[in-house]
Write a structure and sequence with these properties.
alpha/beta, Dna Ligase, domain 1, Nucleotidyltransferase, domain 5, six-stranded mixed beta sheet, five-stranded mixed beta sheet, 11 helices, about 35% helix
């Protein structure tokens, strides 16, 4: 168990194919830098496209990943910041407006909270609830693009916000799996925000950058511009879809297709002329044409990037992000993906690298660990919160998001 909430920080990434857990602490000898002291992972067979379909299987995977992280870190883990994933996660813009009633017309913290609460008064279906709230900017008597209005003077205060919602049944299933694994969620956040925290520099956050977290069953995307969250979306496609396409196109078993993907799938031009390749599994050899593998891989990734571009079109950012695209997630290790993404989205692209952490970082350097390391970092930045009334256990992140965004912008 943690000695106190500020001593040890835990991120728990409940993904479609894997559950990962990372434990960190502040290292006084490294100028207060966050240091990784433990990590664990376990295969997850209880989820489909980021959503829980077998609660017990997910709970068992969480237990295994947490136990491994406990052995390495020497800490008993009872709380963690957890990601929310799946195509049920949707983001939309909202606006709140209030009048300032104080005699001196000075904006207080209470006024800021009131206008944020006004932005959350939206009509949601009975089966949906708010997961997270992000204030993009404030306006005061016609003056726009204000980062924080507290201390300013005016009469009419407005906020432009981005609200992320999730389907209540899916959120309850996730909460149930955590309860069975005896892990209390300190905070919930979307996967893409965690990945962004782990890999983006301050310059990228300001310039306008898309973080594309391509996992096994889903692709999480987030657009950050002017230090603010502009758009969040989850596309129900990922590395598993490429495996399925290879199995169909090569007329082979899924296990063989997965091995082909891991060992030979590539988007590099120089790999197109490799000729025949051989894959061995269970003492049996399988021969395939590399050209077929390349064609299937390119078609699947191109389709995925078309869906990504459609999301950018919605917010008028297609081909218009100076910070480009930062790729994370297990599928980001696909050779040539950055170059292929650059050509298809007409934006600079690179594979993300974890920043601003030390300790055992060399053991979690792969792109598949970006989200869970970001969750650990957010566990430090986000303070524990009260649960939403009548909710399934998903936290009310309004005040939390505000505290985090101040650090996110200034970092």
């Amino acid at each position: 168990m943690r000695d106190s909430p500020s001593n040890y920080y835990v991120g728990l990434d409940i993904g479609t194919s894997q559950v990962r857990c990372v434990v960190g602490m502040i290292d006084p000898s490294a100028a207060g830098k966050l240091s990784i002291i433990g990590h664990g992972s376990a295969k997850n067979s209880g989820m489909r496209k980021g959503m829980v379909v077998h609660v017990d299987d997910v709970a068992e995977a969480i237990i295994q990943a947490v136990n491994e992280a406990e052995r390495i870190s020497g800490q008993q883990i009872q709380r963690a910041t957890v990601n929310v994933n799946g195509s049920h996660v949707l983001g939309f813009n909202s606006k709140g407006v209030i009048a300032i009633s104080a005699a001196n017309r000075e904006i207080s913290v209470d006024d800021r909270m009131r206008v944020e609460e006004a932005a959350t008064v939206v009509s949601l279906p009975a089966n949906r609830e708010i997961v997270q709230f992000f204030a993009k900017s404030y306006s005061l008597d016609g003056q726009t693009n204000i980062k924080d209005p507290v201390g300013m003077h005016g009469i009419r205060l407005e906020v432009n916000a981005h609200i992320v919602t999730g389907a209540t049944p899916n959120l309850r299933n996730l909460a149930q799996a955590l309860e069975k694994a005896e892990v209390t969620p300190a905070n919930y956040t979307v996967s893409s925000l965690a990945a962004a925290e782990a890999v983006l520099s301050r310059q990228q956050k300001e310039a306008g950058t898309l973080v594309l977290d391509i996992g096994a069953g889903t692709t999480n995307m987030i657009v950050v511009e002017d230090g603010e969250i502009q758009h969040v979306a989850v596309i129900p496609a990922g590395g598993i879809n490429l495996t399925n396409d290879l199995a169909i196109g090569l007329k082979t078993d899924l296990d063989v297709a997965e091995k082909v993907k891991l060992e030979h799938a590539s988007l590099l031009d120089e790999h197109r002329n490799k000729g025949d390749i051989t894959v061995k599994l269970n003492k049996q050899a399988y021969n395939f044409e590399f050209g077929d593998i390349a064609m299937i891989t390119e078609a699947r990734i191109e389709e995925l990037l078309e869906l990504v571009d459609k999301e950018l079109v919605k917010i008028k950012r297609s081909h218009k992000l100076p910070g480009g695209v930062v790729l994370t997630g297990g599928t980001a290790s696909l050779p040539g993906l950055a170059e292929f993404t650059r050509d298809k989205l007409q934006l600079p692209a690179r594979v993300g690298k974890i920043q601003n952490v030390g300790g055992l970082v060399d053991t979690v350097e792969g792109t598949s660990y970006c989200t869970v390391v970001g969750l650990m970092m957010l566990d430090m930045l986000l303070l524990p919160n009260a649960l939403m009334p009548q909710s399934s256990g998903i936290v009310d992140s309004i005040a939390v998001a505000q505290r985090f965004l101040k650090r996110f912008i200034k970092k």
